[in-house]
Amino acid sequence: MQLKPLKGQHHVSAITADAKRNYEFYTKTLGMRLVKKSINQDDTSVYHLFYADERGNPGTDLTFFELPYAGNTYPGTNSISTTSLRVPTDDSLDYWTKRFEEYQVDHDAISGHTGRKTLAFRDFEGQRLMLVSDENNEGVSGGVPWEKSTVPTEHAVYGLGPVMLTVAKAETSAQVLTQLLGYREVRSYRSLVEGQPDVRVFETGEGGTGAEVHLEERSDLPVERPGRGSVHHVAFRVENEEELRGWVSHLKQLRIPSSGFVERYYFKSLYFREANGILYELATDGPGFEEDEPFETLGERLALPPYFEEKREEIEAKLKPLDTKE
């Protein structure tokens, strides 16, 4: 079958050591909605929390695995080094600057160095984040802000923006993006680190902030040692299961090691790791997060895919209680 271009970001999954503080920061401070409180399906003793727009539309999810004993992150190469979040306008960045000062969130000044207005900041564990203005954006559409958010709709986070990959050898990752995944290299901008190459920008599908990967080569850094505040993997969107199975076959034909087809219930997935150590996931747009919870109460109870339901009592006994009811 002829594979269609990837549609852009699906989700980014990161690591936290404190689910309670993580929930408070991403819902109360950032105003995102917790659309699913579930478990890491590969380790059911820890939470997997999904923050997104009003219903977890594809391209809006920032997710966290809780690893209570995770140590500090030591930043470096082989990493997904910045996750950006889309906001509607340049004025939104002024709103967020004031909000970050009010909430004592570590942040930088508003910048235009990437070609768009951005505001870099860190959460309480040093997670490297950036707000990106969609004021002049054309391309894949964002999600729908939740009307009960703590942030006004006109300034709300409503999707994932570009992800930054920091690697030792950019050309290796560039070939994966263009020759395997079908991305287009569209522009570049100057690195903030003197003596380092320009950051290269790749896009897929309709392009725009929700479909870009920024590739940074750094010769001055060691390999990242991940921990709390680091990113585990980035996922890109495919239309449906048929398309995903096409990718499974494609990677198999190319003899690229992968997970093969993986059932995640809320979506279907495929994972593979490239030579620079970046873990990629391809994930389907559906079925979505309303398979087992109504829209009105998303994220309020521990949601378990059906194949874990018979172990609910055992799973809940291992988890520290986390109250997520509004």
From TrEMBL:
> A Gene Ontology molecular-function term?
dioxygenase activity
* Residues making up the signal peptide according to the UniProt record: none
Outline the extent of the VOC domain: 8-134, 159-285
Keyword terms of this UniProt record = Dioxygenase, Oxidoreductase
Highest taxon above the source species: Bacteria
Q: What is this protein called?
A: Ring-cleaving dioxygenase
Q: In the record, what lineage is assigned to the organism producing the protein?
A: Bacteria, Bacillati, Bacillota, Bacilli, Bacillales
